[in-house]
């Protein structure tokens, strides 16, 4: 509500399997979470008042956001990744892909 009053449209995603029982979660694949992010991006992009779309992803949401951006060429204006579950090394392909973004802060 606060963000809406400040002029922001916010979409909170619950990744597939996270609100279900553990047995269902075991059958979920990474592609399902990437599809969730893609669907959310497309939903926001279809809004006439969407000037830009930013991603704030925590843990699995962070890595699903990066993976969806790469796999589907989504154009997030900014990405804030909180506690992403990937190893940060100089040779990591995931980390190297982040350097394509202007104004990157690590």
Tell me what the structure shows:
By secondary structure, the protein is mainly alpha-helical. The chain contains five helices and two strands, in the order αααβαβα. It has a two-stranded parallel ribbon. Helix 3 packs across helix 4 (60-72). The longest helix is centred in the middle third of the chain and has 16 residues, at 30-45. 14% of the residues are buried.
Write the layout of secondary structure elements.
Blueprint: H1 2-5, H2 22-25, H3 30-45, E1 54-58, H4 60-72, E2 78-82, H5 93-98
Task: Name the descriptors.
about 40% helix, two-stranded parallel sheet, single chain, about 10% strand
The geometry reads as: globular
Q: Helix-strand pattern, N to C?
A: HHHEHEH
Helix and strand content put the structural class at mainly alpha
Number of strands: 2
Q: End-to-end distance, in Å?
A: 29 Å
**Average pLDDT reading:** 84
Q: Supply Rg.
A: 15 Å
Query: What proportion strand?
Result: 5-15%
Percent helix, as a range, is 40-55%
Poorly predicted regions are: none
Q: Name the strands of the widest sheet in spatial order.
A: 1-2
Sheet with the most strands, sense and barrel status: 2 strands, parallel
Helical region count?
5
């Amino acid at each position: 509500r606060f963000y809406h009053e400040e002029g922001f449209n916010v979409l909170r995603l619950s990744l597939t399997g996270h609100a279900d029982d553990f047995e269902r979660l075991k059958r979920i694949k990474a592609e399902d979470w990437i599809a969730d992010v893609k669907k959310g991006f497309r939903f926001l992009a279809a809004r006439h008042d969407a000037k830009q779309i930013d991603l704030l992803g925590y843990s699995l949401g962070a890595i699903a956001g990066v993976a969806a951006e790469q796999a589907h060429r989504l154009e997030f204006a900014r990405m804030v990744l909180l506690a992403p579950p990937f190893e940060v090394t100089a040779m990591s392909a995931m980390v190297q892909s982040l350097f394509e973004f202007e104004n990157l802060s690590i």
